[in-house]
Amino acid sequence: MSDSTAGIEFRNVTKRYGNDTSAPMAVRGISFDVPRGTLTTILGPSGCGKTTTLRMIAGLESPTSGEIRIEGHDVTTLGPAQRNVSMMFQSYALFPHMDVVDNVSYGLRMSKVAKEQARSRAVDALRNVGLVGFDARLPSELSGGQQQRVALARALVLEPAVLLFDEPLSNLDARLRREMREEIRSLQQRLKLTVAYVTHDQSEALAVSDQIIVMDHGVIAQRGSPQALYEAPASEFVAGFMGEAMLFSAQAGADGRVRLGPLSIAPRQAVPAGPVKVAVRPEAWQLGVPGEGLQARLAKRAYLGNVYEYTFDTELGPVFVVSSDLARVLPLGGDASLRLAEHGVSVVQVG
Fold this sequence. Notes:
There is one protein chain. By secondary structure, this protein is of the alpha+beta class. The longest helix has 18 residues, at 174-191. It has helices at 50-58, 100-110, 115-128, 144-156, 174-191, 202-208, 226-231, 236-241; strands at 6-16, 25-35, 39-43, 65-70, 73-74, 85-88, 162-166, 194-199, 211-216, 219-224, 246-252, 258-260, 263-265, 274-280, 285-288, 294-303, 308-314, 317-323, 335-340, 345-350. Helix 2 (100-110) runs parallel beside helix 4 and helix 3 (115-128) packs across helix 4. It has 2 domains: 6-231, 3-Layer(aba) Sandwich (Rossmann fold); 244-350, CATH 2.40.50.140.
């Protein structure tokens, strides 16, 4: 049954390339919803199935089985032109011989919209992305960030039911990447767009998303809010993928506490007594003077401007720590003790 509040619905969708039933499946029976007016990021390493999933939403790939619905309508067998979907590619794909306003209005003119109306709508779309006065410029006269905005305006001018992004920021430098992800998020919220967004960048996903879907080998490893995935990963894979968590073997006691070497942890949810795995993020470690806590000796140190990155030798093995304390710099070979904050620590696997 269709969910009337969903912009995109996947129901047990599978994708196998080729007709041979022994061929590997790129996507394995996944189901999820993207609520209308929200942004969902599909995140995962190369080969996990995220781009295939996005291409199936766009109609550029057909599922082997299952059902895809957009705004309540079954589009499983429809082509891209019949779906009211716009897709923004990594390469921008601007026409080099056309000026900015002609690039943006191109899709409208191909849809038989009158030239003056297409131009007026294109100018409005350019204003929406902060490009006023750029109408007559060629793509070669624009910066990478400006080209990105033109491509975004070209997608928005078609007033799609669903807007798709395929690694849209990977060609930009770090500062522009941050500016553009803020721009995309602001536009999405202001215009109440339904967006599916593919990236392999965890920080990008955390910054722009209402919902994150983490994929691994063609299946959904976990989905939920950015905060839920970061603070309560359901598996070793998700914990390791969402922000450099290190996994340690530990022991859950009958008293409900988890013991990690000399440290004692109160898990968010009850776990049965026995062996467990604990995911610890680099910022969860707190530095102290030698004595109490986990004894550590500094093996490596790197200065990153706003933080220090430390690697300590401990009885648990190497421990990676990010410290914002720039006033107290630990010497290589120096001793310290490590404690755990309440945030950034999760029991992710039992058994």
